[in-house]
Amino acid sequence: MQYAKITGWGKCLPPASISNDELSQIVDTNDEWIRTRSGIRSRRISHVDTATLATVAAKRAIDCAGIDPTGIDLVLLATCTPSTMVANTASQVQHDIGATNAAACDANAACSGFLYALQMATAQIQAGMIKKAVVIAAERMSWHLNWARRDSAVLFGDGAGAVVLEASNEPAGLLAAKTGCDSGDRGILHISNCGTNTDRYQPLGPSEIHFEGREIFKRAVKGMSEACDDVLRQAKLELADIDLLVPHQANLRIIQAIQHRLDLPDDKVMVNIDQYGNTSAATIAIALCEAVERGLIQPHANIMSAAFGAGLTWAAAYIRWGERVTPVRQSQAELPPCDKTGLELVMPAVKACQGG
Ligand SMILES: CC(C)(COP(=O)(O)OP(=O)(O)OC[C@H]1O[C@@H](n2cnc3c(N)ncnc32)[C@H](O)[C@@H]1OP(=O)(O)O)[C@@H](O)C(=O)NCCC(=O)NCCS
Question: What is the total count of domains within the chain?
Fold first, then answer.
């Protein structure tokens, strides 16, 4: 039996950020509301496109694995904010990382995208079709925000994370997963003015994120907890066997509700929503990488992950870490410098959305 071991991990957070106090200068909100309702204190705003965020995260993961990019068979990019639709954004990343022998494909399952992509790449390795893959999740959610709408403008941010998967005889990597989609309610979370359902002969307004917050909240807690139970059963594990939960970072209260349902202590739950907000598909990829960097993932750790997003897609995964928790090579990959603050970066969009 072949397994798809995670041998490299990397993340890319653009340097410019907007704090809650800064946000309250441009949206009718305040730090106290955002912190207590969502747990978010700050979010990153990208000065580069999604492909560039993805490329830097992928290069860091490749250096971490210590592999030659020409040996990669698949570049799979989870995103709902592709920088280009045709050609796909993954082809730009394939070019920029030098993975000249790899297939390149974008995958969209919104916030569940990273776990969906991890499952797809793992299945190809387990089936013996490929040997090495880089699975990336990259998002530029700030592009979709309507800065006149305080409900969504405060919740999202930009960023990317990536992992390298390599065929291995050792039982490691994604060992059990459950993915699904409650499509009957797909309308309660969506982005408008985007896609070929729009009338391209009429002037379109800016795209914007719509959601029924309370309903999504309840569905996310139930969906992610039940998917975790399913994966535990498949893997024949007890909750006590889990060393770390790496949940999608949409709202701290959603994470705490799942933690409560699964009865996990604080030190077994990875949280970084306070710094980055909801980066959609990228949250789990970034959090996984940051958990290793913080020393929360030890050799052979049992990791549970769960996601929920538009569709309404959901997913849970049991990942067994390998032996190594440090990079093979330190990466030199960096974004181009940014000479603007987060507020300066969003100001043109703020003026357009607020009609000024
Ligand atoms: C959005 C969310 C943070 C709202 O938290 P909540 O406790 O459910 O808050 P409510 O929606 O009940 O809003 C309460 C009040 O805050 C107000 N409010 C909304 N956004 C606000 C903001 N940014 N600042 C200040 N007040 C705000 C509302 O207008 C409402 O006012 P009212 O009571 O006078 O009508 C929460 O429901 C959530 O995170 N849901 C999931 C979000 C989601 O879909 N994420 C993407 C997919 S994973």
Answer: 2
Ligand 1 center to residue 211 CA distance, Å?
Answer: 10
Rounded Cα distance, 23 and 13, in Å: 19
275 and 179 part of one domain:
yes
Q: Which H or E run includes 343?
A: helix 342-353
pLDDT at site 203: 81
What pairing do the DSSP bridges indicate for beta strands 74-78 and 302-309?
unpaired
> Model confidence over 146-194: pLDDT tens digits?
998 999 999 999 999 999 999 999 999 999 999 999 999 999 999 999 9
End-to-end CA distance of the chain: 61
Which CATH number is 24's domain given? 3.40.47.10
Band of the pLDDT at 202, cuts 50, 70, 90?
confident
Structural domain boundaries, residue 333: 3-171+326-353
For CA atoms 89, 95, 97, 101, the dihedral sign is positive
Residue with CA closest to ligand 1 atom 30? 151
245 shares its domain with 305 = yes
**The pLDDT of residue 205:** 82
Q: 90 with 117, same domain?
A: yes
Q: What is the CA 341 to chain-centroid distance, rounded?
A: 23
Q: Are residues 153 and 198 in the same domain?
A: no
Q: Which residues does ligand 1 sit against, CB inside 6 Å?
A: 29, 33, 37-38, 111, 150-151, 154, 189, 211, 213-214, 216-217, 220, 250-251, 278, 308-309
Q: For the beta carbon of residue 193, count every other beta carbon within 10 angstroms.
A: 13
